[in-house]
Amino acid sequence: MRDTTHCHHGDSATGDAPDWIEYVVQREEIGLLRTLADMAHEPRDPFKPWERRRWKKGFLLAALTTGAWLAWFAWFSFLS
After folding, report:
1. What residue segments make up the domains of the chain, in order of their start?
2. Could you list the pLDDT tens digit for every one of the 80 residues in the chain?
3. Which of 4, 32, 39, 41 has its CA 20 to 30 A from that of 57?
């Protein structure tokens, strides 16, 4: 069994990830990636499970707004 009493924060010199990130990525039953995908996509149609899920409009709006803001910030901060 793995010792979880000590918290390892990773080594920035070697690029090691913290233990908790490795733990969450390796444990599929936690469902972190599935939760993130569910936040970004519409629910799956139970009668057409082969179809791809569509993006949520609110998620797309937030992603595009954030991307535009970052591009605007980069343009005026670094290129001007």
Report:
1. 19-78
2. 455 555 545 454 555 677 877 777 777 777 777 888 888 999 888 898 889 999 999 999 999 999 999 999 998 888 76
3. 32
